[in-house]
Every structure is written in C-alpha cells, then in structure tokens.
Design brief:
The protein has 356 residues and is α/β, with parallel strands linked by helices. It has two domains: 171 residues, Rossmann fold (3-Layer(aba) Sandwich); 151 residues, Dehydroquinate synthase-like - alpha domain (Dehydroquinate synthase-like, alpha domain, Up-down Bundle). The chain is built from 13 helices and twelve strands. The strands form three sheets. A seven-stranded mixed β-sheet has the order 1-2-9-6-5-3-4, with helices on both faces. A three-stranded antiparallel β-sheet has the order 10-11-12. It has a two-stranded antiparallel sheet with strand order 7-8. It is globular. The chain binds nicotinamide-adenine-dinucleotide (NAD) and zinc ion. The site of zinc ion has 5 residues, from helix 10.
Length: 356
C-alpha cells in the first residue's frame, strides 16, 4: 500500500507521512528532516516494550546517537514531575540546542515530549511518531503541547511544531479496542466540524479498512484550522468541539475516563444543549449519539453538573467571565458561541438532559 503525505503549512512547514511499515525507515526519514545528531526518544512503558527497539535501531542505522527516556504509561504521567525528569534526562544525555527529541507513543507522550522539546534549552527539534489512532488523527499535528496541573487539563504548556510526523499504521494493530475507539472520537469530531462524508463513513462503523485515508483526512482538516490560527485565538478554537465538557469529565473522573471517551460524551452533550437552545438543527444530537455508540463510545456522563461546572470554569477556554463553546449547527458545520460563565450550569444541564 502506498504512503500518504500531508503538507502542514504551519511555521516553516512540515510533512506528516502516513502508511504501513514506516517505523523501519523512520531513522532515514528523520535524518533527512533534521540531519543525524544526538537524539532522545521519549516513550511510555507499553510503547517501549512494543516499538522502542525498532525505532532505536533505525535511528542508529541512520547515524543518530540515541538515548531513550521511558515513563510509566497513562495520563497520570502527564505532569510536571515527569516533565522535570525528562528534562534532567536530556541534560544528562548532553543534548544540545541542535539536537532532537523524538516523541514515540500516544497523545500523552506527544504532549509531554513536545513540551520538553519546547523548553529544553529554549527549544530543540522534535519529531512525532504517533502510535495511537488519537495521536495520529489529532495530537501529533498542530504543535500544542502540555502537561496537566491539579486545577485541570493542559494548564501548563507551549506551542512546539515538529520537524516531521511519521505515522506507521501497522502500530495501530496492537492497540486495544478501547484505545482505537478513543481515536475514533477525535476523527468523528472532524466529521462533525467539517466533513459530512467522513462522519457518515465513521457512523456506519466502517472505519477499519480505510484507516490511512481517514488519518490523512483528519490531519488535512486539522492543519487547515491550525494554518489559519496557530495560537488558538480564532478559528483554531473550533478544534475544541466537545472539549469544554470533555475536559471537565476527564478531571471529574480523576482521569479514569480517557480523553477520547470524554470528548465523545462532551460532543453529544453540547449538540443536545445546542438543540434545546435552538442553535443546532433538530436530530443532529441523536445522529452524533448514534455514531458514537456504533463506535463503542459514550454519549453521556454520570458526572454531576456541579462537579462538571467547577472543572469547566477552570478550563483554559474560559476568558474572564465568559467561555466560548463550539456548537454543531448541523453535521459538517459548527459555530462558536460565547456565553457568560453564569449560563454554563444551565448548558451542562441541558446537555445532560438531552443525553438521557
Ligand atoms: N496536543 C494536542 O493537540 C492534543 C489533541 C488531542 C489529545 N491530546 C492529548 O492526548 C492524550 C490522549 O492521547 P492517547 O489517547 O493517545 O493516550 P496515551 O498516550 O495514554 O495512549 C493510550 C494507551 O495506549 C498505549 N499505546 C500507545 N500506542 C500503542 C500501540 N501502538 N499498541 C498498544 N498500546 C499502545 C499507551 O501505552 C497508553 O496506555 C490526552 O492527554 C489529551 O489531552 C492532545
Ligand atoms: Zn482532544
């Protein structure tokens, strides 16, 4: 099967390459983007078992001097303590300003390694090798990196674009079904935002055989939003569809509900609230909920409104006394809707009621 390439025209521009068997040749590909140098591969404990040796070998063969920093897998590692350990490791490995960080893993790894690459010596180069569907369709592209603080998700971070994104679709074969579904939640987000045919394909439950095409479509959508608005002040905010309530669900569950499932429920709830507010075409919420359920994702949450409200109000999408929500108008088109924070409890209640 041939590989696909998406040109992401942000900053100096970079490519996302998607296809099977790419890990074998990743060293040569990264060398062409950055030249051989010293490199630290950042990866989690599970991905290290599966793919670290292959990447390390390919990079060594291409002339890199490679060290690896492995952290315990899971969202619980996306914090300041692990970031600090990664930075200390880079210093011990004598990484210099012309060297490279490689993020090998899911969105947690990409966010953590990307943040480390952004701040180590005020910025070293970064390559992203996403190994989850979620990281492939969303988090490896666009340059947002972060760790969580006690008060909420992604509250400390930086913008850091990679030199290259290499997405070996063979890696998705070892993903547990539930992790695959998490990625489908973000893919469905792109359908609801801007791509009715993509939504229909995913809603029919037939993603499996067209994954490279779906990943390329999502990256194209994402790069379009990011090109227009790298720093998240304008149209990039559309990418937050489902995320205000989604991040609140993650936080309220003590991060036991993973990001993709939380965003799924957040998307269904905001569509339900949108219908009740007269902003969303009737039937849209039901269609979104059906597509989510078909893909093994939730369309509702058990978290209480009060808890969700408290978490949503410390979300960084809040700006002073107002918060900008992304609300589907219909499948394939969304609007930005700014409300006073005092209306947020009512909106969460409407979303919860619609999701019952
Ligand atoms: N920066 C962005 O733009 C952006 C966008 C969306 C999400 N995110 C962030 O991404 C994170 C979620 O990412 P995620 O869902 O990839 O989580 P993750 O990185 O924790 O990966 C999920 C699990 O899958 C395992 N895994 C990874 N690749 C595997 C493979 N090929 N085979 C088997 N197991 C594998 C991991 O070890 C982990 O246990 C959240 O923190 C979210 O905030 C960031
Ligand atoms: Zn997300």
């Amino acid at each position: 099967m041939k590989e696909r390439t998406v040109d992401v025209k942000v900053g100096t521009g970079y490519q996302a390459v998607i296809g099977p068997g790419l890990l074998q040749s990743c060293g040569g590909r990264i060398a062409r983007a950055s030249g051989p140098c010293r490199a630290v591969i950042v990866t989690d404990s599970r991905v290290a078992e599966l793919y670290l040796e292959k990447v390390r070998q390919s990079m060594s063969d291409a002339g890199f001097s490679v060290e690896s920093f492995v952290f315990p897998r899971g969202e619980g590692s996306k914090n300041m303590a692990v970031l600090w350990q990664a930075l200390e490791f880079m210093a011990e490995s004598r990484l210099t300003r012309t060297d490279l960080v490689v993020a090998l893993g899911g969105g947690v790894t990409g966010d953590l390694a990307g943040f480390a690459a952004a701040v180590y010596q005020r910025g070293v180069r970064l390559a992203q090798i996403p190994t989850t569907l979620l990281a492939a369709v969303d988090s490896s592209v666009g340059g947002k990196t972060a760790v969580n603080l006690k008060a909420g998700k992604n509250l400390a971070g930086a913008f850091k674009q990679p030199e290259l994104v290499i997405c070996d679709t063979d890696c998705l074969g070892t993903l547990p079904e539930s992790e695959f579904a998490n990625g489908l939640a973000e893919a469905l987000k792109y359908g609801v935002l801007a791509d009715r045919p993509l939504f229909d394909r995913l809603a029919a439950g037939s993603a499996g055989d067209r994954i490279p095409e779906i990943i390329a479509a999502c990256i194209e959508h994402k790069s379009r939003y990011v090109q227009q608005d790298e720093r998240d002040n304008g149209d990039r905010r559309f990418l937050n569809l489902g995320h205000t309530i989604g991040h609140a669900i993650e936080k309220c569950s003590g991060f036991r509900v993973p990001h993709g499932r939380a965003v799924a429920a957040g998307m269904a709830m905001i569509a339900g609230a949108g219908e009740k507010l007269g902003l969303t075409e009737p039937g849209t919420a039901e269609e979104i909920a059906a597509a989510l359920l078909k893909n093994g994702l939730p369309a509702a949450t058990e978290c209480e409104t009060e808890e969700l409200l408290c978490a949503a109000l410390s979300d960084k999408k809040r700006s002073g006394d107002s918060i900008t929500l992304v609300i589907p108008k219909r499948i394939g088109q969304c609007i930005l809707h700014t409300v006073p924070v005092t209306e947020m409890a009512g909106i969460i209640d409407l979303g919860k009621a619609a999701a019952v």
